[in-house]
Amino acid sequence: MPALIAQAQRFLPQHLLSRLAGRIARSRWPWLKDRLIRLAIRRFGIDLSEAEHSDPAAYPSFDAFFTRALKTGARQPDPDPDAILAPADGRIVSVGPVHRGSLLQAKGQHYPLSELLADEALALRFEGGQQLTIYLSPRDYHRVHMPAAGELRSALHLPGRLFSVNRASTDSIPRLFVRNERLIALFEGAFGPFAIVLVAALLVGGIETVFAGRIIPPHPRRILDLTPAEPLRLPRFAELGRFHYGSTVILLLPPGTELLPAATVDADIRVGMAVARPSSLAPLRGESSA
Question: Would residue 80 show up in a list of annotated catalytic residues for this protein?
């Protein structure tokens, strides 16, 4: 049944529904936003003890609640300066090497990295590297942080569908992450290139970044180059952007990096946790994918 429901998304007006959801989420009517916030807290078991504002009524809109900041110190980067950090809170749904230009979406489901990035030459730079795919559920902290210090080399907004990215969908919809609308941010770090892909999904009211502001919506039908005119370097652990509802982050690392034991399928991780290191510094690791 979950697979049938996931497949039924093909026939939904995905962008229209997401625009409507975004408008509702941004509403400042107290009777509506307070009811939505209380419902979400109960439905998803959201813990506000780490939030900057623990009072649900303090949020001016449902959207502000979902993109809430945390208290100072609620997340800390791993003290090892060589550690590559988890960019988001969430559950790891896929992890492992980039092999023959293919990434693991779910058990039995693979997709081409060149299609995810819309760039065959760029995909080749990650051949033999590592990938980490993190699902952000509605209960999670929705801001995305830098896994390492890096200079932004390019930022592309790719149009696409808005399939849900929950487990039923990733298990049953082939090439889901390639088909969905997404933002690709390519950085150059001390260990080489790394990319952070923010994947939009059904009912996601928006994606924004610190360098381009609100990106989704609107939902253009062509690729947009959002690379800043001036060089931009972001420090390790700095905020990169945020989702205006749950979605997925894909972290791509170059050859010469190794995943750490904390980076395993179905593991719950938090921003700032060490998930990888340069190979010469990384301990041996067991199986990395399901």
Answer: no
